[in-house]
Write a structure and sequence with these properties.
Shape: globular
Strand order of the largest sheet: 6-5-4-7-8
Order of helices and strands: HHEEEHHHEHEEHEEHHHHHH
Strand content: 5-15%
Distance between the termini: 53 Å
Number of strands: 8
Largest sheet: 5 strands, mixed
Number of domains: 2
Number of helices: 13
Structural class: alpha/beta
Radius of gyration: 22 Å
Helix content: 25-40%
């Protein structure tokens, strides 16, 4: 049986989290209570509830005869195949969940006493649990307007040496940079972001139609790629050469998110690989979407741990539609792939 963790005993601050998660058994009990909220521990291989807890090994053993009868709390989570104890993992989850501008691997390695490479590995695995997942519900269904905007991620030419500038800056605008598109639902305050290859009409309008209910209000800037949205939406736009706000027509909500994203990328992470950019987008989008969580820092932390354990609502919906969640099933494989690929930072 998994122990029930009282809400009054769970940490509410970083100082409390460090004290609470300094004991390995307390960490196991906390994660087990979230993973099996009914208190009945189940074998991840056969789903049997006939298990015994081996206290000397801090793992369970299934009574049913099959390979891998013994399992730890890490099996089937992003912690799987990691030799690090939960006393390292859970404080790291708390930090990345609640630091507004993110946490660099160097900062994490100093904070919890691991190497920088280990900290980098940990952060990418935690970002895997912070992904938005599949969207079963389209935006705009609540009646609120949707803001759509795009931005370029990359270095400023004025900050480059003239030789680097000549090498990297090959055109105007977004040349040599990465394109990111965002959608903000003003009713719910939730944002969705995606790394795109171009901002052509087919690409941008395809993302809007895939994520926004037909008939909703959509506010954009004057980019020509958005022309034609009025066939399916109530489309209004502002020309930023003339004005930024016209009544309630503006994209200032998305501009706010872009400022937070770029503050984290430029101030905390400094340089990001283009093929890892979507992970940093997921991280910032999670914190933005959970910024008003009723339980504050503790609530955001619990949301990430729930994602880790596969007990969050949208992960359960994914399981019902297509079997076991891809993120939980492939957590170890994805984390190994994160370390591969060509080197090449955003210019």
């Amino acid at each position: 049986m998994a122990k029930n963790i009282s809400e009054t005993n769970t940490p509410k601050t970083l100082a409390g989290a460090i004290r609470f998660f300094s004991d390995e058994q307390a960490c196991i009990d906390y994660v087990a209570a979230i993973r099996w909220p009914d208190g009945e521990v189940r074998c991840p291989s056969c789903d049997s509830a006939e298990v015994n807890y081996l206290s000397n090994q801090r793992r369970w053993k299934c009574r049913t005869k099959h390979p891998k009868q013994q399992f730890s709390i890490k099996v089937g989570t992003i912690f799987e195949d990691s030799p690090l104890s939960l006393t390292k993992w859970l404080p790291a989850v708390w930090l990345i969940s609640n630091c507004k501008n993110g946490v660099s691997s160097l900062e994490l390695h100093r904070a919890i006493g691991v190497t920088q490479k280990t900290a980098w590995f940990m952060l990418h695995r935690i970002r895997l649990a912070m992904q938005n997942g599949t969207f079963e519900t389209k935006m705009g269904g609540g009646g609120g307007p949707i803001e759509a905007d795009e931005t370029f991620i990359g270095g400023k030419s004025r900050n480059m040496h003239k030789h680097k500038r000549a090498e990297k800056i090959t055109g105007t605008g977004g040349a040599g940079k990465e394109l990111v598109m965002g959608l903000l639902d003003r009713e719910s305050g939730k944002v969705r972001v995606k790394h795109l290859t171009n901002r052509k009409r087919k690409t941008l309008q395809g993302e809007i139609r895939a994520n926004v209910e037909a008939g909703a209000e959509v506010f954009t800037d004057e980019l020509a790629s958005y022309l034609g949205l009025d066939e399916d939406y109530v489309h209004e736009f502002v020309n930023h050469a003339e004005e930024y706000v016209r009544g309630n027509v503006h994209t200032n909500g998305m501009e706010n998110f872009w400022s937070l994203l770029k503050r984290g990328l430029k101030g905390t992470y400094v340089s990001v690989e283009p093929f890892h950019l979507f992970r940093y987008l997921d991280e910032q989008a999670f914190r933005f979407n959970e910024r008003k969580h009723e339980d504050g820092d503790a609530g955001r932390f619990k949301e990430v741990v729930s994602e880790v354990c596969g007990t969050s609502p949208h992960l359960q919906a994914t399981d019902r539609q297509g079997g076991e969640s891809t993120r939980r099933r492939d957590a170890g494989v994805n984390a190994k792939r994160q370390r591969r690929g060509k080197r090449g930072k955003l210019k």
